[in-house]
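Figure S4 source data
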Amino acid sequence: MTVFLCLLLGVLLVVLYRLFITPRRAGSWGGDAFEASAYGLPPRAALDPRRPGPPPPAHRTEERQAVADAAWGGDWKAAERYVRTAGDDWDERWARLEVLQQIAREDDAWLDAWRAAAPGDCDAATLHASIMVHRAWEIRGSGYAHEVMTSDMDRFRAMLPAAIEEARQASLLDPANPGPWVVMITAARGAQYRRAQFKPLWEGLVARAPHHYEGHWQAMQYWCAKWFGSDRRMMRFARQAVRKAPPGSPLAGIYLHALTEAGDRSAAVTPMSRSVLKRIAASFELVAPDDERLPALRHLLAHSMVRSMLYAPALEQFRLIGPWCGAQPWRKNGNPIAAFDAARATAAKLSRTRPAPTPPVQGMAR
């Protein structure tokens, strides 16, 4: 028995050492002491903290700018075509509505003209309802309820029912379009919808678009501990998203957002949590490389993998990320370059990956 206990204690000490001491030592290997290029990574001097990934393709940026210029010039038909050409790709259609929402922040006279000229257009009505929700949230702010002025909270709560009704009316204009249901789900938690009220909204969305990314993100927020769920309920919802994510969709990334929402409360490393991260990595391999959601999700995945001691898979994610480090996990302490470099150094040093040998310096012949 004594020998068994000694062995058990020895194993425990090794695990604790690897869990707490070794990663800290590896983190100190960042900076000039870390030869990133030896592990297939860009050097520290090349890191760019301005963005999570490369800028959008030029043709996409030019198209968006053309739509904005036309809208601000009074041509709402360009905006209507921009959304309509997405067809039944509901994630893309929603992304285009979000672009139009940004355009409307500068000047929304074109949206008023669109709605007046085409009162039966579901996209125009959905866009207007979504803007109403976002304006309500801007009044409230992102603080906890006790931090919000009573007058602002009253205005916030008064605006949301009108936005939900606007979205409900929009849903009647095109029953197959999930956009209005995303708006209603987004507004539901602020409107204090209980679970019995939220359920038909969720069922309405997934009946039309069962893998809608934004809809799942907003529902995840509803189920988090600070609103109407709990860490356990939220993580169960996120694992379901991983399981049902279709090939080519970044839907599995909802799990990574749930881990971020839970924060230190999700620190437990289990075989199941590791297997989920590996499954997410595999699903990302099938997502289009130019999907603009993918870079930020890879940062979250690499961060979670380092925390879960999946060092070799994390290293692969850092290779795919490249020099970009302007993403959420690394910005918290105000120095994203240092945090990113330390994390990838940890992944490299503890992955048991052998660094590439440094080629010898050849002397010059006389």
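Figure S5 source data
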Amino acid sequence: MQTEARVGVVVDGSGGGGGGGGGGQRVLNTGHGTVVVDGAAAGAAHKLMEQQKERAFQNHQSRIGTVSQLLAGGVAGAVGKTCTAPLARLTILFQLQGMHSEVGSLKKASIWQEARRIIREEGFRAFWKGNLVTIAHRLPYSSISFYAFERYKNLLQLIWGVESRGESISTDLFIRLVGGGLAGITAASVTYPLDLVRTRLAAQTNVMYYRGIWHALCTISKEEGASALYKGLGATLLGVGPNLAISFSVYDTARTLWQYHRPDDSTVLVSLGCGSVSGIASSTVTFPLDLLRRRMQLEGAGGQPRVYKTGIYGTFRHIFKTEGFRGLYRGILPEYYKVVPSVSIVFMTYEKLKQLLSKIPES
């Protein structure tokens, strides 16, 4: 093997002087000078170098500082929620139909009719009702969920002895599912009171019982007890664990496959496409639990009588008995309209911020 000083030059030696022999020779840049190799090995060596560079870049991105990673996750969540706040409020209002009304008296759900009603009775700004508390909740929630997912994933890879992605598809998928589920449970447990307040503020229509975040927190604690701030936490943890497990694992797996087959596609396109698929998959599976969570969060709100008094399973049976299977998916259409852009925007923003922050030199 012969070392030369040239960098990045390809030499096709097709037989001429120096010793005959068939295949060409290629000069490859190894990072420590250049090496002339046989043509048969050039393709494999070049591919290996490209994979090493890609892995090094991904590792550098994953090792951005804790503050930077928390910032990227928090901003991504806030941006995604703000962009889709009108559809999120419509979803909540549809989910709560039938809670204090006879199912037979409910009109056929129409997104456009409900949207027109909101504009007519509450004004256009009402689509963002409760969005301030949404951002206050989503900043820490997304920060913790993205950060915890990366940390749980690294920990599980260490426990299972996985040195790099792609060694085993089944192991990778299992690590992503478990890591996503644990991340969701961690984030939801820490930020739950703000999620409950957000639901109650968004559910208000003409009567404004709660005047803001602090007033809602104080009123709920005073009238229903401090434990009421955690109403529906069980249903939330049952739902958010699978939700983020599916979301993160589908996104991470789809992104890996996409980048393997189409490595030149932009980060924005990959994030939007994979985020859409992961959002639809996670929402379809966990929507009934999300509906249970919303309804349990509204139990006793504004002095209204309790409807569900028998826990998660009893609430599930009550809804299924009085509203049927469709009642468990009440509001799924606006949820789909919301989740496709929302999850896509969140992952796209997170990936772009990670790219930007990874380029900032460490002090």
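Strands lie at 2-4, 25-29, 34-38. Confidence is low (pLDDT under 50) at residues 1-23.
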